[in-house]
Amino acid sequence: MKTTSMILILTAFALLVGAESSVAQEKMSRDEWQSEMRNANNRIMSLTKEGRDLDSQKIVLQSQLTKLDGDVKSCEDALYAMLGVTRADVQAFEKDLNDMEKRVGELQRMTDAELVGYKDEINRMNERLKEMAASKIALIPRYADRVHSLQDKVAALMKSLSKEKTYTVGTWSKDRDCLWNIARKKDIYDNAWMWPKIWQGNRDLIKDPDIIKPRWVLKIPEGKELSRDEKSAANRYYRKKATGPASQ
Prior knowledge:
This protein has about 250 residues and is mostly helical. The protein contains 9 helices and 2 strands. The longest helix has about 80 residues, at about 1-85. The N and C termini lie far apart (about 145 Å).
C-alpha cells in the first residue's frame, strides 16, 4: 500500500514538473517570436529610410549630371567654334569613322587572295583617311587616335596587297595542276576561266599554255576579270585549238 502510494506521489510530481517546464518553453518561444518581429520591423524601417535617402541622393546626382552635360556641351561648342566647324560636321566625321572602322574590320578578316578584289576600295579608303587626318576635326584627341589607328590598319592591308602572289606547280598525277585547275582554286581566282591571266602574266616561262612543269613558280596577277589583251590571247588560243595543235 505504501509502495503504491509512493509511486502515485512520484508520478504526480513528475507530471507537475513536466507541465511547468512545457509552459515555460511555450512562454520563451513566444517572447523570442515577439523579439524577432521587433527586429524585423526595425530593419524594415531602417531600409525604408535608406531608400528615401538614396532617392534624395539620386535626384541630386541627376541634377548634377544634367549640369555637367550642359557644361560639356558648352565646352564642345566653344571648341568647335575655335576650329571653325559645326556640331553637324563633327557628327558626320564620326559617322564616317564608325563606318570605316567596321569596313576595315571586315577586310582584315579576308585572306590576301580575297583582298585583291578590293584593292581599289582600299586605295580609296587610304585617300579618304588622308583627308580626314588633315581635317581640323582630327585635332580633337578622341578622333585623332582613331584616325591614326585606321591609317595603320589600312597601311597593313595595302602592304598585304603589295606582296606578289605566286603558285608553285605540282604534278599532274598528284595535284592535277594545269592553268585551268590552278585558276579555279579558291585561293587563286576561284574561276577556271581566269586561266589566261596566269598565262599572260608568265609569258617568260609559259610558251604553251597546255604545258606547265612541276616546281615552276608562277606569278598570280591581280584582278577579278580578264583584260582586253588576255581575252585576245585566249581567243587566239581557242581558234588554234579548233584548227590544229596549239602553238605560240
